[in-house]
Amino acid sequence: MNLPQFFSRHGRNSGQPRARGRRGTQLLPQARLAGPMPWVIAIMIALTTIAAAGALTLNNVANTVRAELAGGVTVQIVEAAPAERDRQARAALAALGALPGVVSAQRVPKEELDRLMEPWLGESLTGDEAIPVPALIDARLNGRATRERVEALRRDLHAVAPAAQVDAQASWLQPVISAVRSMQYLALALILLLIAATTAAVWLAARTALGVNRDTIEVVHHLGGTDSQIAWIFQRSVARDAVLGGIVGLAVGLIAIVALARQFAALDSGMLTGGGLTMLNWLLLALVPLAGVALATLTARLTVLAALRRML
After folding, report:
1. Which of 150, 172, 194 represents a domain boundary (last residue)?
2. Spatial distance between the Cα atoms of 262 and 251, rounded to a whole number of angstroms
3. Distance between CA atoms of 248 and 80, rounded to whole angstroms?
4. Cβ within 8 Å of residue 289, ≥6 positions away
5. Are residues 257 and 276 in the same domain?
6. Domain that holds residue 279
7. Does residue 165 or residue 127 have the better pLDDT?
8. Least confident stretch, 53-62, 210-219, 254-263
9. Which of 6, 72, 199, 221 has the most CB atoms within 10 Å of its CB?
10. What is the per-residue pLDDT for 7?
11. For residue 271, which of 52, 114, 57 has the smallest C-alpha distance?
12. Region (Disordered) spans which residues (predicted)?
């Protein structure tokens, strides 16, 4: 761009400068999607969108599992004799229905237990003829299944079912919830790394453009051009690249998210049923490219202003 000619036409106090001169040339070469900067930003936005979707999904899974299992209690009747096991299971089920604080209690059908064990033991090893399977009762309390409440429930059931074992469902799934939380923190750390990488890429591009146009910038300063006016040209150029890269990156990220969601939906896992993205989650994902554009623009402006103060 012919900056001396530009400032002679528009003056020192004409506001923000335009990025084009008479011949349409520019201070920063704009190759649109053929240049490296839009592609770099597109890759960063796509990865950030996928990482953010993963963090939101994991957060939904952890919250759903914790809410569903907060008051859940599993009662096992560990008895080898089928008749005695069935008697104690019926007695424990009746006792649970009469205890205060128990919202619901139902026995898990034996057919369902066999179906759950068949992938691990095989069809020939299911059933009492091969391996005695404890009777299971799924109960739900009207509040959190604390250790004190579980111990009190165990004492009440031992009076009618000595072979009963009571466990809070949240306790044996706590390692799974902890692993989910760890993966969520890993996704957040990845997002921070991508933000840092994007900032570094914009900083490097702005510094390179300043070095290439150093002589022209010095002439502009001698003609009365301000640092803010020069920074605006760089800022708008980077903003255009960021907008183009953000649109492409968001599109690629959303396609990857939908493809991954279909793959996980095909697993038909109970834990993943509560991990779907909500409307608020989708709105947050839509803000990722906007945040990327704002970050790139601000980084370019601050980089140029800081470099100009040291340069001249």
Report:
1. 172
2. 17
3. 63
4. 45, 49, 246, 247, 249, 250
5. yes
6. 3-65+175-311
7. 165
8. 210-219
9. 6
10. 40
11. 57
12. 1-25
